[in-house]
Amino acid sequence: MTAADATPYAAALAAARSLLFVPGNRADRYAKAAAAGADGVIVDLEDAVAPESKDAARDAVAGWLAGGARAVVRINPPGTEWHAADLAMAAAHGVPVLLPKAEDPADLAAVADRTGGRLPVLALVETAAGVENAAALCRAPNVVRAAFGNIDLAAQLGVDPDDHQALAYARSRLVCASAAAGLAPPLDGVTAGLAADGPLPADVAHARRLGFGGKLCIHPRQLGAVHEGFTPSADEQEWARRVLAAEGPVTVVDGQMVDRPVLERARRVLAAAGRG
């Protein structure tokens, strides 16, 4: 796969509001996940697959990708016995990888080196070291976007993964690191609750307020709320159109002076709406 071949993948990942996990050892669910309406699918070879099933799961994913499927592959992290084979399989099929436990920029550089710089990479930041190194991780070769691993980080910190305040620092640091590196806003971590009256809408609203641009999902029923929450509302879009229509040397819209940062925000709102 050439750099030009990788461009559509990278652009799609940068624009995604939702990426839906499917276990790598459940080949019967691959097609269902791909048809669920997510902006992208992550086939998981790491947490979802027991050690004794890793090789068989990798082979199953390879077979599916060989048939023309498009997906991100969450490979096993550096230092594990499955990492090299997972990475080689993804490279053979020219698909992006989600690198778990991203905390050392050298690991991301090694992924780029071993794949000839051909694969877009999502850096999953889910450890304290990863949070503290977020700026360097977001600038690492081939990283097109960062994602937040709230469950693993909460376990390491000894806090509740659903506690917005406890993880606010980590989330904000990842948002700032992404912006500083010129990346799209990061993807927020998963919400474990699946009940209709569960925490998902509040989680989405919180992540968006902090500057996230999308969310990792674990079930198709989460997609509607995620897409709605990360797509600008009709009122936001109308505001953005009024701002851009009134663009001039000195302009006031809705009692607010319009200058360059406001114009840029309006353009981002309409660009995000266009992805919906």
UniProtKB/TrEMBL annotation:
Pfam (any one): HpcH_HpaI
Keywords annotated in UniProt: Lyase, Magnesium, Metal-binding
Coiled coil stretches, renumbered: none
Cofactor: Mg(2+)
InterPro entries referenced in this protein's UniProt entry, alphabetically: Aldolase/citrate-lyase_domain, Citrate_lyase_beta/mcl1/mcl2, Pyrv/PenolPyrv_kinase-like_dom, Pyrv_kinase-like_dom_sf
Domain (HpcH/HpaI aldolase/citrate lyase) ranges: 17-220
PANTHER family per UniProt: CITRATE LYASE SUBUNIT BETA, LYASE BETA SUBUNIT, PUTATIVE (AFU_ORTHOLOGUE AFUA_4G13030)-RELATED
Name by which UniProt lists this protein: CoA ester lyase
Organism: Streptomyces olivaceiscleroticus
